[in-house]
Amino acid sequence: MELIQSIDNNILIFIQENLKNPVFDQVMVFITKLGNAGFLWILIAFLLLSQKKYQKCGVPLICAISLAMFFGDDILKPLIGRIRPCNSFPEVPLLISRPNTFSFPSGHTMVGFTSATVIFKYHRKLGGFTFMIASFIAYSRLHLFVHYPSDILGGIVLGMLNAAFVIIGVEAIYNYIDDFH
């Protein structure tokens, strides 16, 4: 665990010392806000649900987002209890409000990669684009010093597993319903 923490710290220090500038910092603030409370992903889900040809994607997307938020924020974060880098190193100035939750896994990342995986399953082109957005949001959490790289990696893996779980479950329900029509 010490090795992972050392790697995490070194990556964050590199970002803080080499990749920060006033313009890019504000871009990262904007990008991270897209992921606040799953806003962007919930908006996309409702847009998909509002169009008949995309509803088959919208239903599992809403389910996956809900499960990711519950499992990541309400179960894993308190259970694991990892302190955020901004709390471990309070001398580093923050560009956003200091989060009051634990660090692992990154909720922004988990919800983003859950969403991108579900969307990719049903719509490859849109899914590729959403993976790019999810990646930018994930990086913004590092840039803004509120997550460690391993929080981001955990969010990616857990988000994709969550999506697979939901897709399998929803597809089974879809198939069950189709059998009765």
Please tell me about this protein's structure:
It comes from Mobilitalea sibirica. There is one protein chain. The chain has one domain. It is mostly helical. Helix content is 77%, strand content 0%. The model has no long low-confidence stretch (mean pLDDT 95). The protein has 8 helices and no strands.
What attributes does this structure have?
181 residues, 8 helices, 77% helix, elongated, PAP2/HPO, hydrolase activity, membrane, hydrolase
In short:
By secondary structure, the protein is mainly α.
Helical fraction equals: over 70%
β-strand amount = under 5%
Low-pLDDT segments: none
> What order do the helices and strands follow?
HHHHHHHH
Instruction: Give the overall form.
Output: elongated
Q: How far from one another are the termini?
A: 53 Å
